[in-house]
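QA checklist item 7 of 12: single-chain prediction sanity check.
[x] sequence parsed
[x] length recorded as 275
[x] structure emitted
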Amino acid sequence: MTFNRFSQSTSRRAVLALVLLASLLMGSCKYVRYIKQLDPTMAGTKPVDHVPYDALLKKHVDAQGMVNYRAFLADSTALGTYLTTVSNNLPNEQWNKDDQLAYWINAYNAFTIQRVLRGYPVKSIRQLGGDKTLVNTVWDQQFIRLGNDKDKYSLNDLEQRLIRRKFSGEYRIHFALVCAAISCPKLRNEAYTGSRLQEQLDDQARDFINNPNKNKLTPANAPQVSSIFDFYPGDFKKDDNTLSKTINKYSAGPKVDAEIQPTFMTYNWDLNEQK
């Protein structure tokens, strides 16, 4: 046990050293920003009404989670108005955890849609940024205002510094955060709400796990699974959880072996656009 803790601590220090070195070599502090947790808050606010966003999703997103971006362009002002409300009403600890998480999932997904609309037409969201991870990709562009902070934030700030850390252990976020690509989970055609969040997250998990375009669960000892499980392996190994337990909990059909050796499917970054 002592050796494991020492090894983990040593590994963390080594990773931190590499990140700091990389930031110096890149001549940029953008790597370093992702080390610090982000938890903006605003006293006196109440849970945001997501009805305007819900209406936009019902209008422009189909049952498969595909988006009619061309039509959505006509409602970009309405989306912007909703996101202004989001930016001006940050959560606080008086909100329950489900209201807080629903807020941040909606914020991430809605800001992603806004970024696509600003660059539309485009074949892939990745074309809207550079190719250096945690430096200049579309997810590193700082265009998001949070409260009265003079700084602006990126989609990676929301996901990596805030949602994954503040809600550590809630692996279902990876079935709800949608990066506007075919291989992402489907974008729900309704907003997340605190009162229904647990139901919605379970539904997203079932939909994602059982979608043969995202996961092929046979053979049981070597399934082909989404690269999302490879992107965030540690998130599925907390609190005695494992990848196989996650799959088997939500699989409506085949179950996988406890000691699986999965192949990760190639990620399709094409835009999740209705054809």
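[x] summary fact logged: The radius of gyration is 19 Å.
[ ] second reviewer sign-off
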